[in-house]
Amino acid sequence: MTGEQRIAAGELNYAGIGATETGMLPEDGKGLITQAYVGDGEAAYRRAVQGLLTWRVHRRAGLRVRAESDVVVPGTRVVSGFGVGPFRINAPCEVVWVRRPVPGPGPQSAGFGYGTLPGHPVRGEESFEISLDEKGQVLIKLTAFGVPANWFYAVGGPVTDRARRLVTSRYVRSAQELAAGVN
């Protein structure tokens, strides 16, 4: 895909690319980790992972998603939009890592992380992981770090934090519904 065909311009604009995969978050960015129960059993895990790796978790969370690929793969650019009409904030990102599910039962996790591109309100990274533990519980873990991209978003800190909590709760609910088989 050439630069003219990309749905978002520019390059990743933050330090610590891939840090959400390793768990070694940069000290200079505000970090946030959220983990929640999604369901039970391998079938629930597979449904939730399928929804995560095809952008359904994001869409069901109420985001407008435009991605270069219907399936999450490294290098894919995605622009998600939050809000309504002229109050929509577009957030361009690029997928920086992906972990696919492995065949068979047993503890495992799958997910991806994406980093911000110019035009995103934050400079940083966010990851989404669905795991199946040794007891058969399915969990979602969201890890994020970043700093406001400019003074405007820095001033809106409390509003930004509230919006982040709202979207995070929607991601969790979306994963729970997908795990339960709710279409």
Task: Write up what this structure looks like.
It is a single chain. By secondary structure, the protein is an alpha+beta fold. The protein has 5 helices and 7 strands. It has helices at 19-22, 42-52, 56-60, 151-155, 157-179, and strands spanning 30-40, 64-67, 77-82, 89-99, 108-116, 122-132, 137-148. The protein has a 7-stranded antiparallel sheet. A hairpin with a 6-residue loop joins β3 and β4. α2 packs across α5. The mean pLDDT is 89.
Return the domain count: 1
- Distance N terminus to C terminus? 33 Å
Q: What percentage of amino acids are in beta strands?
A: 25-35%
Q: How would you sum up the global shape?
A: globular
- Determine the fraction of residues in helical runs and give it as a percent range: 25-40%
Work out the oligomeric state of the chains in this entry.
single chain
The CATH superfamily name is START domain
Q: Biggest sheet, in brief?
A: 7 strands, antiparallel
Query: Biggest sheet: strands side by side, in what order?
Result: 1-7-6-5-4-3-2
Low-confidence blocks of residues? none
**What is the C-level CATH assignment?**
Alpha Beta
Q: Structural class, from helix and strand content? A: alpha+beta
Total helices: the number is: 5
Give me the count of strands.
7
What name is given to the CATH topology?
Alpha-D-Glucose-1,6-Bisphosphate, Chain A, domain 4
**How do the SSEs run, as a string of H and E?**
HEHHEEEEEEHH
CATH architecture: 2-Layer Sandwich
Task: Let me know the average pLDDT.
Answer: 89
Radius of gyration: 16 Å
